[in-house]
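Pipeline run #58 for the internal structure catalog. This entry was flagged by the ingest filter as a single-chain record with no existing model, so it goes straight to prediction. Upstream metadata was stripped on purpose; only the residue string is passed forward. Reviewer on rotation: M.T. Logging verbosity set to normal.
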Amino acid sequence: MATNYLKKILSARVYDVARETELQLAPELTKRLGNQVLLKREDNQPVFSFKLRGAYNKMAHLPPEALKRGVISASAGNHAQGVALSAAKMKCKAVIVMPITTPSLKIDAVKARGGSWVEIILHGESYSDAFKYSEVLGEKRGLTFVHPFDDPDVIAGQGTIAQEIFQQHQEPIDAVFVAIGGGGLISGIGEYVKAISPKTKVIGVQASDSDAMNRSLKANKRIEMKDVGLFSDGTAVKLVGKETFRICKKVVDEIILVDTDEICAAINDVFTDTRSILEPAGALAIAGMKKYVEKKRIKKKTLVAVACGANMNFSRLRFVAERADVGEFREAVFAVTIPEERGSFKRFCELLGKRNVTEFNYRIGDQSEAHIFVGISTQKSGDSEAIAKHFTKAKFATIDLTHDELAKSHLRHMVGGHSALAKDELLYRFEFPERPGALMKFLTSMAPNWNISLFHYRNHGADYGRILVGIQVPKNEQKKFQNFLASLGYPHWDESNNPAYRLFLK
């Protein structure tokens, strides 16, 4: 007999531990996209994720004897916290198997939620290893397994999110966007949406390197991925559930795939509107919604995106900020070859016009050619192609690296090294005011016979920029150079005797 999910959702027990979260207007996203954008703020749950809804509902429907024996689960993050909190609330022993690679931050969070009711076992290198071990251990100890997604009670618990959405917004909703990992969240939401508002589209969003559900729906059978991307770790599932797959075939209208840069841009968008920082999986729905609007060119619709989690590792923020500009088409990066001759660097900068330079990496390495890594502010998706053509037209060989993963992740941090050509080189750090014309002021103030042999600059969003410059100044012009520094008026530090410079760059 098929499960009556509408009935199960309406009778779900979640509010002993969960709270009804806000359905919040995102004003900036609304204005930019030309549609009413509403965020369902599951990141505001006590465990900063929706996962406790399903975990608690499953445990609340267990018979007393099963609760007395205890439960077991496998998780590397949000589900584990949900089970732990539920166990403490229900005074039920819970064993949680986590991979040995789990960050201590998450292990400590599970301990804090569950206290003495939780036993944590570290096993295996991945979630799959932990999952297999939890099944064996659960059977051995007679514990009830609480699945992270492939269970009717878990699915029904997650479905209460949709119930809240339609209670909070009485007007028609055109589409609801939901992240997909194993499929538990979208299954619960989709079952409720299609039961009470069949015209509302249910659109799943997956990371392009972790799209097991997308592949499975296309093949009409469950496809197990050999490897999955780990950036959106909350949705990095190799094989979707049997029940979630069955439901998704019925309730999901479309799946949108997004890349890492688009996820980072969505994290930035939500921060702009809410001052909250979502984890990558938590921002998937927003990234997919943006892409859907662009693809379909829709206007004046009501769109809901589920912000499903905020268990973000602080150390990731640097990477997110770096990649958000590319994901939002606010930055393009290029490799440009210019003649190794005095004045060509300045000529290249003049070519940039009023465009804002976000990054500049250069180290002298060849007597005839100079290779520059440059980042430039952009406004829209087609700008990088237009800029590349502009450079090429000016006889500068150019490669557009905007979508090159090697360049964005590694090369931009590795430009440099020793150079035998860096004769009479002085190395200086400068702080420039972050405003148009600051760089050109620097270049036009220099003596024409001084050559720039090294240049590194990255815009970090502050009101001043930090720049490292190598300048070849003849020994008999040192006084002239000091006068140049004084007239420039920028704070500066001589790093010519820095041991790190001598080790890696000299």
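catalog note: Residues 1-324 form a domain with the Rossmann fold fold (CATH 3.40.50.1100).
catalog note: The chain has a mean pLDDT of 89.
status: ready for reviewer M.T.
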